[in-house]
Every structure is written in C-alpha cells, then in structure tokens.
C-alpha cells in the first residue's frame, strides 16, 4: 500500500477519493512545511500532494527514493523541479482548470473596484470621511482590458469582462483563438498603450520574470490599473511602487508576491503596504470552496488512476500514455533512459524469461522513455528486481 503525504491543507475530497480506491495510509499536514520538515515528510512517501508553497527542489527529490508520483493540487507547477522529477521517473500531475473561474471572477471584481476607487473610498469612510466625489471613478463599460497571457484564466477573464461591456485585447507568445470580440496584439507595447486595465495571466519562471518593469509600466496608459494574480515574479514591485507614486499607475491589485509569507502569522513585507489604492490579497485567487473541493477530487483521481493503471495522461513533465484497461495478468511500468535500443533491451529481458507480451505502449519525452507492458503470465518480483538492476532502467514497478 503506498504511503500518501498531503501538505498545505488539501481539501478532504482528496482523502475521500483515495479511501474509496482502497488507499488508507495517508498523512495530512494543514500547512506547508519548512525545508527540513518537508524533506523528512517526503523522504519515505510513495505519493506526495502539495499546493503552491511547497518547493520540491532537487535536494528534496534526490532524498525521496520511494517517491513514484507527485500531485500539485493547484494550477502552477513551477514549485516542483520538473526536470529532476522526470529524471527520477516521477510524473507530476496538476489541476489545470479547477480554479480558473475563481481567479477570473476575482480579477474582474478587482478591475471594477479599482476603476471606482473603492479601496480608497472604503478606507476614507472607515477614517470618518464622507467624500461623495465622482472624480477619478469610472464605469467598466467601454474601458479596455489588456490581458497578458491568454490561456485558461486570461481567456476566461476576457469572457467575463466582455459581459460587463469591456473591450478586450490580449498579448500571448503563442497564437490563441480569440473568444468573443477579443483582439490579439503580437506587440506587448502596443497593447499596453491602449489598455485601461492590464491583467497578468502568465506562468511563473525565468521567461516571465519582471514582464512588468519600469519600461513596460511607462508604456502603459497614464492612470491605468495593474492586476497580478499569476506569479509574484512577473512584476518588479519597486518599479510598480515608483509608478504608483508618480501617478502613472492609478491603482493595483496583487494576489501574488516575489516572496510570500511562510505562514498565516508572518506579515507580508512589501513596499506596497499601506497604499490605499492597492488591493493586497494573500494568494487566494484560487481559494474558493468550490475550486478547492474540485481540485482535491480531480488531482486525487489522476493519482489513483496512475497508481492503478500507470496512465500518465495529463502529466506535466512526463511521456503521456493514455488509459488502457489492463489486458494481461500483470502490468509493468518501466521508465528508462531514452536511448536507441531501449525497448529491444527491455523486450529481450522478457523473452529471456519466457514472458509473453500481450500489449505494450511506449512514449518518450526528452531524456526518458516510458513503457507499459501487459504480460500473459503473472510476473514475479524477481523479474522486476532484474529489470531494476539493468543500466537502462530509471524506475520499474509491478502493478
Ligand atoms: N492567484 C492564484 O491563486 C492563481 C490560481 C490559479 C493560477 N494561477 C497562476 O495563473 C497563471 C496562469 O494560469 P493559466 O491556467 O491561465 O495558465 P495557462 O497555461 O492556461 O495560460 C498561460 C498563458 O500564458 C502564455 N504565456 C507564457 N509566457 C508568456 C509571455 N512571456 N508573454 C505572454 N504570454 C505568455 C501562454 O502561452 C499561455 O497562453 C499561472 O502562473 C498560475 O500558476 C494563480
Ligand atoms: O497555481 C495555482 O493554482 C495557484 O497559485 C493557487 O495555489 P494554491 O492552491 O497554493 O493557493
């Protein structure tokens, strides 16, 4: 029975899915763990479930010999060293769209609140003022929303924004089907120059670091609004503070930060603290009851499917093999180095032991190949042990 370790308060729907599939050796943690405690928690786990705050880097993955699969119970997977996980034969799954709608609704709400200067007005009323001025307050209708990253969330934000009468333009590094009346801009600067509200929906990582910086902030319309609910690394916060001080940017909403507090009692350190035209939220774009319950179920189902059948459909770092019902007496999962002759080597190992193959699927990706083999006869652990010893083998499991 695999040992399953779930961190970061993953919704109980995940445990329900595991239990229903017969898996009961489950350890849950209500929070993310500091690096040493995380290392210890992951060390003897077969399955690990995390959200965005647990960093599974090389040093942790290298010390987790039993680890067979990782589930990110969120969209982002940049917190996992995906290349190292692949080298170790560990597929990583996520929930690519279970919290998409939650983020999109929050972003549209923030766009409207900032266009109306609600954060400032709210603060003023709390401070004893009753300022009914309409100055600087605008309807969303007829304003232009500029979306950077028109993937699942970006396109959903665009659809919602059109429903309240906004004009939608977007910039993406890939060609995307525009939904509704949205218009693509291949040139980011041209898009920034036209948008009243700019919202970011790109992945994290080096390629998107500081997309919003002093130069791109200067390319935005004077008095525009900036929203970031993607990853903290995509906005240069010092440059944003300077643009807010200079009134180049009229307001901002940030849900993610370059460095986020490690726990609920640690305050956010940011030059944006205290500005009443800036909405700061604690990375809760995807935190709704609906999305967390859906994510718990969706990712746990993917992990159970992998444990029971070896299918890697939807894995973000691994050769993808679709589900196929077992066709023989045993199923062997074999991850090997992607070298010429690897499949022939594997099959000759079966032939030497007089094991008949009734079905086989192979897929490769970068440095590894992944084969699911269904055999006519029941295969013993001795065969798996022999396969594990072979130099082409990265990982081998018997189902
Ligand atoms: N705040 C939250 O709680 C929360 C919740 C969910 C997702 N997210 C984050 O939102 C982001 C987007 O999620 P998604 O599901 O829409 O992802 P997605 O993969 O569907 O879309 C990302 C889009 O960004 C585009 N892109 C990549 N690099 C780009 C660049 N340099 N310039 C322009 N476009 C670029 C891609 O082509 C793709 O279309 C991710 O970083 C995810 O981690 C945050
Ligand atoms: O990648 C995501 O889905 C978001 O960043 C949400 O992450 P969380 O589940 O850790 O809040």
TrEMBL record:
The keyword Metal-binding belongs to this UniProt entry's keyword annotation: no
Matching InterPro entries: ACT-like_dom_sf, ACT_dom, AHAS_small-like_ACT, D-iso_2-hydroxyacid_DH_PdxB, D-isomer_2_OHA_DH_cat_dom, D-isomer_DH_CS, D-isomer_DH_CS1, D-isomer_DH_NAD-bd
Catalytic activity of the protein: (2R)-3-phosphoglycerate + NAD(+) = 3-phosphooxypyruvate + NADH + H(+); (R)-2-hydroxyglutarate + NAD(+) = 2-oxoglutarate + NADH + H(+)
The organism of origin for this protein: Pigmentiphaga soli
Lineage, top ranks: Bacteria, Pseudomonadati, Pseudomonadota, Betaproteobacteria, Burkholderiales
Enzyme class of the recorded protein, top EC level: oxidoreductase
Gene behind this protein: serA
Entries under Gene3D superfamilies matching the protein: 3.30.70.260, NAD(P)-binding Rossmann-like Domain (3.40.50.720)
E.C. no: 1.1.1.399, 1.1.1.95
Superkingdom as given in the UniProt entry: Bacteria
Keywords: NAD, Oxidoreductase
Coiled coil: none
Residue ranges annotated for the ACT domain, each copy included: 331-399
Family, similarity comment: Belongs to the D-isomer specific 2-hydroxyacid dehydrogenase family.
Function: Catalyzes the reversible oxidation of 3-phospho-D-glycerate to 3-phosphonooxypyruvate, the first step of the phosphorylated L-serine biosynthesis pathway. Also catalyzes the reversible oxidation of 2-hydroxyglutarate to 2-oxoglutarate.
Protein name: D-3-phosphoglycerate dehydrogenase
Pathway annotation: Amino-acid biosynthesis; L-serine biosynthesis; L-serine from 3-phospho-D-glycerate: step 1/3
